[in-house]
Design goal:
The chain contains 13 helices and 18 strands. The longest helix has 24 residues, at 338-361. The radius of gyration is 22 Å and the shape is globular. It has 430 residues and is α/β, with parallel strands linked by helices.
């Protein structure tokens, strides 16, 4: 039996889908991509916008029309949407995250749905998540109680919950033994991970010490959480922590941030960024930005532009605000016309692309460290720098896959950097 696995949404969803794939393969099923012919389709869904939720329903209906025998829906849409509406879309089973949180409309869905539920519930198993690269994402935390005005995730994911330290270490050790060299620690609000006196920095430090792990990368770190302790660790030579900080901004205007119910001011955000850049000068700085939020006038938008121009962002995710039913923001006054939202988003995207190119150009003439993920027939390797810059490396061999290599950077573009291997050998051996 072939089981298709289609994942939507964030990095955490992809980490969870990898756990589902690992569990299904352990039980003897063949897992294929979600767009390939299959007998059963597992849809691991997103609900961060109404559009994402509607798309999940559309995919379920389309699968049934195309002859898929059984459709199982998991993820945030499964947690938040009306179950009767989900079943009306042709879904055979709805799977949540908690023990027993599963409802089947047809008996033939029960066996596979129970495996999916087990994989998502956080229960330890004999299997490991399955990934297609030398990087592996490890879920360390779930849930959020920040309650930003535009966000439905707390309703879909519940209160914050940290995964036990020992469970995380066992999974990382297993992944490393299977050849995964870079571990990405991820969660809904990853910086809220804690156990006893340990916080995210201590978890990252311990993760980097696991045998076989070349480096640790973090998903987004919310302002006002653990960013300074993370930067302090990042600045220590040999810490194993990638020089990347994805630090959500959302808006550069204090009034809009307050309306969004964000927990920081523009000045606090700037202070944190400037501290990070003082400790790690060539920092891969990323941010999320929402434009067109209710009440965002031209002056507020100009403050956001000014903030983005001020710092060397190399990775900007821009979203025009989208009303999400069930959130406080969806009923707020001061609606910004959709055409204005889209035009502002286009402007910010153009700025982000320019700054990404400028950041890549700052590497030219210097050296970078790249984890090689693949090598083509011409001997050109592909991978990512510690700063999350896409890299092409000439002079690679198949056996270099999975190695950290030193690269002399000779050119750059908006797509990333290109360089030549310093010694065509692993920096691990130097």
């Amino acid at each position: 039996m072939k089981i298709g696995l289609k994942v939507m949404g964030c990095r955490l969803n992809h980490a969870e889908a990898a756990a589902v794939a690992g569990a299904l393969e352990y039980e003897g099923y063949e897992v294929v991509g979600g767009n390939e012919p299959c007998d059963v389709l597992v849809l691991h869904t997103c609900a961060v916008t109404a559009t994402a939720q509607n798309e999940a329903m559309r995919l379920a209906r389309s699968a049934k029309r195309n002859g898929v025998d059984c459709v199982i829906m998991s993820g945030c849409t499964a947690s938040i949407a009306d179950t009767s509406k989900i079943f009306e879309s042709g879904v055979d089973a709805v799977v949540g995250k908690g023990e027993g949180d599963m409802e089947c409309a047809t008996a033939n869905a029960e066996e596979i749905a129970s495996i999916v539920l087990h994989a998502l519930s956080g229960t330890e198993g004999a299997y490991l998540p399955r990934f297609a690269s030398t990087r592996a994402s490890v879920k360390v935390q779930d849930g959020c109680n920040f309650r930003c005005a535009y966000c439905i995730v707390p309703d879909a994911r519940g209160e914050p919950k940290s995964r036990p330290f020992d469970d995380i270490m066992r999974e990382i050790a297993g992944l490393a033994s299977n050849g995964y060299r870079e571990i990405v620690l991820t969660g809904v609000n990853v910086a809220c991970w804690s156990e006893g006196a340990m916080g995210l920095a201590e978890l990252a430090k311990a993760s980097a010490r696991v045998e076989g792990v070349a480096r640790i990368r973090l998903s987004s770190v919310e302002p006002g959480t653990a960013e300074r302790s993370i930067v302090d660790l990042m600045s220590v030579a040999g810490s194993g922590l990638c020089h990347t900080l994805h630090y959500p901004l959302q808006s550069g205007d204090s009034r809009v941030l307050h309306a969004m119910r964000r927990r920081y001011t523009p000045r606090e955000y700037m202070d944190a960024v400037e501290y990070a850049l003082s400790k790690v000068p060539r920092l891969g700085l990323g941010a999320d930005v929402i434009t067109g939020f209710p009440g965002e006038d031209d002056a507020a938008f100009a403050e956001t532009v000014k903030m983005i121009e001020r710092y060397p962002f190399g990775n900007l995710h821009v979203f025009p605000y989208s009303e999400r039913p069930g959130t406080p923001a969806s009923d707020m006054a001061g609606t910004v016309p959709m055409a204005v939202r889209r035009e502002r988003a286009r402007e910010l995207i153009a700025i982000g692309e320019r700054k990404k190119r400028e950041f890549a150009e700052s590497f030219v003439g210097g050296e970078a460290e790249v984890l090689v993920e693949r090598v083509d027939s011409r001997g050109v390797g592909r991978g990512w720098t510690s700063e999350y810059v896409d890299a092409r490396i000439k002079g690679m061999r198949e056996e270099d896959i999975g190695k950290l290599v030193g690269v002399k950077v000779v050119e750059a573009s908006g797509a990333g950097i290109c360089g030549i291997s310093l010694r065509n050998c692993s920096l691990d051996d130097v």
